[in-house]
Amino acid sequence: MRIAVDASGGEYAPHEIVKGAIKAAQDYKIGIVLVGKKEILHVQASRYMKKLDISIVDASEIIGDEESPIEAVSKKQNSSIVIGINLVKMEQVSAFVSAGSTGAVMYAAFAMLGRVEGIERPAIGSIITVNINSPFLLLDCGANPNCRPKHLLQFAQMGNIYVREVFGVPSPRIALLNNGEEEKKGNQLAKDTYQVLKASDLNFVGNIEGQNLPKGVADVVVTDGFTGNIVLKTLEGVGEAFLKLRNKHPESANVSRGESQSAQFDVGFGSLVKRIDYRESGGACLLGLNGNVIISHGRSQSKAIRNAIGMAKRSVDRNVCQIIQQYKFTEPELPATEACNEQSS
Question: pTM surpassing 0.90?
Answer without folding.
Answer: no
